[in-house]
Design a protein that fits this description.
It contains twelve helices and two strands, in the order H-H-H-H-H-H-E-E-H-H-H-H-H-H. It is mainly alpha-helical. Strands 1-2 form a two-stranded antiparallel ribbon. Strand 1 and strand 2 form a beta hairpin.
């Protein structure tokens, strides 16, 4: 081999010129941006209409927003929501355990309860409980009218209604846990209580919390229906005021704003609870 051949440099692959490299152009989404602008314009017009419409009487809204009557009604609404959710989920958990039991009688009772109370509208249930004295004038020697006041009727009616839905929420969450998890815990010799507390329940909560949060918010808004039986919740309190002052729209806006504020707080709490139970399952980018 000659020295000229050895001295010849190795071939270098041709590098394409920058002008030859195709340039990636992002897709123009003209339709999406047009729709977004249109939505923002309509939203701005709607907000401007609400704020500048004198019929809303925002000065009256500000005057009654923190009035004693409204705050008492708000407190009763919050108290009623908390009591109904606690009692409803306690009874619903028991019904879910019955539904998952191997005993056919318990399964039938649970299924029948859920079927019955999901079939009857909540307003009808409240009116039936409110007029229960027509069926049972006395209970244990006490007049039913004296035993069951409007608030007690509201608690009973809403709790029995919520328990039917809570039972399905809890049952769905338990069924979402892979059976192999409990089998592995059983193979390790864990007791039934420890299997439920350490294995089943934490995993089931990931499926229970979202619908339970929706139920909580729905119950908060649904308590307004107790105004038909003269329970002085938030809605009934503002109704008492506008029946006296004839300022219907601003008083309804007081209730609307309070429901919106409380619902927003509950939604934020639901987000953090979901994040807590989702630890270890979220994908990291």
């Amino acid at each position: 081999m000659s020295s000229d051949t050895l001295a010849q440099p190795a071939a270098v692959p041709d590098t394409p010129d920058k002008a030859d490299v195709p340039r990636i152009v992002p897709q123009r989404r003209l339709g999406q941006w047009t729709a977004a602008v249109a939505v923002l314009v309509l939203l701005g017009l709607a907000v401007n209409s609400v704020l500048r419409n004198d019929a809303f009487q925002w000065d009256v809204v500000a005057d009654y927003f923190t009035s004693d009557a409204v705050l008492r009604g708000l407190w009763l609404t919050l108290w009623l929501t908390a009591v109904v959710m606690v009692l409803g989920f306690a009874l619903g958990t028991l019904l879910a355990a019955f539904r998952l039991s191997a005993n056919p009688v318990l399964r039938a009772v649970s299924w029948g309860y859920v079927w019955l109370f999901r079939s009857i509208p909540i307003l009808v249930q409240l009116l039936l409980w409110f007029n229960i004295g027509a069926l049972y004038p006395q209970v244990l020697g006490v007049k039913t009218v004296d035993l069951l006041g409007p608030v007690t009727v509201a608690v009973i009616g809403l709790t029995l209604h919520e328990a039917a839905y809570a039972a399905e929420v809890v049952r769905g969450g338990i069924l979402a846990v892979d059976r192999s998890q409990t089998e592995a815990a059983q193979a390790l010799g864990l007791s039934r209580w420890r299997r439920w507390r350490r294995i089943v329940l934490p995993q089931a909560m990931r499926s229970i919390v979202p619908p339970a949060g929706n139920m909580l918010i729905g119950t908060l808004k649904g308590t307004s229906i107790v105004s038909v039986i003269a329970v002085q919740d938030l809605l009934y309190s503002v109704q008492l005021v506008y029946h006296r002052t004839y300022q219907v729209i601003p008083l309804l806006m007081v209730a609307t704003v309070w429901y919106t504020v409380v619902t927003s707080v509950l939604s934020a709490g639901q987000y953090y609870v979901e994040k807590h139970y989702a630890r270890g399952t979220e994908r990291t980018r």
